[in-house]
Design goal:
With 184 residues, the chain is an all-alpha fold. It has two domains: 66 residues, Multidrug-efflux Transporter Regulator, Chain: A, Domain 2 (Orthogonal Bundle); 87 residues, no CATH class. It contains seven helices and two strands. The longest helix is centred in the middle third of the chain and has 41 residues. The model has no long low-confidence stretch (mean pLDDT 82).
Length: 184
């Protein structure tokens, strides 16, 4: 059976193909995550399709939130396994935990999306407000005759509470230079 012929590339080509920098690829090599398929007689590293797949795999794991040391640990665990099923059991457990974390994160983001949409819907009514009251009444708006209370993202504003202003800001607003006063 004839051996497949691969086109090998230098690190610059691998970087262009994968969207990584040559520096990142060198770092992957330092960490033991990537090895060149072979070297030329002049010492240039050459990479083939397996190395392209490895770089994409590393990128995908990083997108999932894994650090390079965690990826190293994953590879070490796989390589230390006595059997393929044992190796894949560890990978499966790691990916299951990451899937659970991702789903929790998605649920938090979906709740945030609902909260923002609710607040924006409520705040749309402020565009037509003709009240000339203090801004503090906004979070308990009675002018729009809303039967529902203000959403949490609006109610939490508490515009009616006095603002805390630093003495330096007050002095600057009054035209004084705070450096003119003695320091205690």
């Amino acid at each position: 059976m004839p051996k497949e012929q691969h086109t090998y590339m230098k690190i610059g080509e691998l970087a262009r193909k994968t969207g990584k920098t040559a520096r990142a690829l060198h770092l992957y090599e330092e960490k033991g995550l990537l090895k060149p398929a072979r070297r030329t007689t002049g010492g240039f590293r050459l990479y083939g399709p397996d190395e392209v797949a490895r770089v994409y795999w590393i990128s995908k794991l990083q997108d999932m939130g894994f650090s390079l040391p965690q990826i190293q640990g994953l590879l070490s665990s796989v390589e230390a396994s006595a059997t393929a099923p044992e190796a894949m059991q560890g990978v499966r457990e790691l990916f299951r935990a990451k899937l659970d974390q991702t789903r929790e994160h998605v649920m938090r983001l979906l709740q945030l999306e609902r909260d923002l949409a609710e607040a924006l819907g409520y705040l749309e009514g402020c565009r037509v407000c003709n009240e000339h009251s203090a801004a503090g009444v906004c979070s308990t708006c009675a002018t729009q005759r809303r039967p529902e209370p203000a959403p949490q993202l609006v109610a939490g504003i508490h515009l009616g509470q006095p603002k805390v202003t630093s003495p330096l800001v007050t002095l600057r607003r009054n035209g004084s230079d705070p450096t003119d006063f003695p320091q205690s």
